[in-house]
C-alpha cells in the first residue's frame, strides 16, 4: 500500500522546483510496473484528510501486506495520531519524501513518523517511491 497525504494530488503543478514535474498518476503507473516485476501488488492512495490515512493504516494492519510506503506530506511534521496509528500496526512503514525536509525550513525538521518507521527515503524526488518499493521487496525477501 502506498499512502500519500495532503497536497500530493497536485504533484506535477505544485511547486515543481521543489517536488518536480512528475504527477501522482505517473508515480502510480511506474510503481505498478515495478511491482509487476517484483511480484508486489501496488495499491496507491491519496487523501487530504488525516483520518483517511489513519483508516488506511488500520486497514493495512488488518491484512497480510508486505509494507506501507507513506508520504504523509505536512502531516509528517504535525500528526501524533499518524505516529500512533503506525505504532498500532505490525506492518512495516517506509517513510518517503520527494524533497529533503532536513534541508528545508526548520518546521520540516521534525518528523513524527521517522521514529516509528522501518526506514526513511527523502530527497530523491519521485525516484524515492521506486527506492522504497525496492526496499519493501528486500524486506519481504529477508522475512522469508
Ligand atoms: C513532502 C515534504 C513535506 O514537508 C511537505 O509538507 C509535503 C511534501 C515531500 O514529499 O517532500 O507536502 O512530504
Written account of the structure:
It is a single chain. It is globular and about 40 Å long. The chain is built from five helices and five strands, in the order βααβαβαββα. The chain has a single domain, classed as Dehydroquinase, class II (Rossmann fold). The model has no long low-confidence stretch (mean pLDDT 97). The longest helix is centred in the C-terminal third of the chain and has 17 residues, at 127-143. It has a five-stranded parallel β-sheet with strand order 2-1-3-4-5, with helices on both faces. It is an alpha/beta fold and 144 residues long. Helix content is 39%, strand content 13%. Helix 4 (80-87) links the parallel strand 3 (68-71) and strand 4. The chain has helices spanning 16-19, 24-38, 50-61, 80-87, 127-143; strands spanning 2-4, 44-46, 68-71, 93-97, 119-122. Bound molecules: 1,3,4-trihydroxy-5-OXO-cyclohexanecarboxylic acid. Residues 7, 71, 73-74, 76, 97-99, 101, 108 line the site of 1,3,4-trihydroxy-5-OXO-cyclohexanecarboxylic acid.
Q: CATH class, please?
A: Alpha Beta
Would you report the number of β strands? 5
Overall domain count:
1
- Counting DSSP H or I runs of 4 or more residues, the number of helices is 5
Could you name the key traits of this structure?
144 residues; alpha/beta; Rossmann fold; 5 strands; binds 1,3,4-trihydroxy-5-OXO-cyclohexanecarboxylic acid
Topology of helices and strands:
Layout: E1 2-4, H1 16-19, H2 24-38, E2 44-46, H3 50-61, E3 68-71, H4 80-87, E4 93-97, E5 119-122, H5 127-143
Parallel strand pairs: 1-2, 1-3, 3-4, 4-5
Helix pairs in contact: 2-5, 3-4
Bound molecules: 1,3,4-trihydroxy-5-OXO-cyclohexanecarboxylic acid.
Amino acid at each position: 500500500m502506498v499512502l500519500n497525504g495532503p497536497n500530493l494530488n497536485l504533484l506535477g503543478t505544485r511547486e515543481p522546483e521543489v517536488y518536480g514535474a512528475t504527477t501522482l498518476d505517473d508515480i502510480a503507473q511506474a510503481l505498478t510496473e515495478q511491482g509487476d516485476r517484483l511480484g508486489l501488488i501496488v495499491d496507491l492512495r491519496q487523501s487530504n484528510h488525516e483520518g483517511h490515512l489513519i483508516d488506511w493504516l488500520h486497514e493495512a494492519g488488518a491484512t497480510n501486506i508486505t509494507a506501507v510506503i507513506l508520504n504523509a506530506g505536512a502531516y509528517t511534521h504535525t500528526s501524533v495520531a499518524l505516529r500512533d496509528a503506525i505504532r498500532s500496526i505490525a506492518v512495516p512503514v517506509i517513510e518517503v519524501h520527494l524533497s529533503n525536509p532536513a534541508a528545508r525550513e526548520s518546521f520540516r525538521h521534525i518528523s513524527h513518523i521517522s521514529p516509528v518507521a522501518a526506514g526513511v527515503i527523502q530527497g530523491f524526488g519521485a525516484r524515492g517511491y521506486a527506492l522504497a518499493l525496492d526496499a519493501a521487496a528486500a524486506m519481504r525477501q529477508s522475512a522469508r
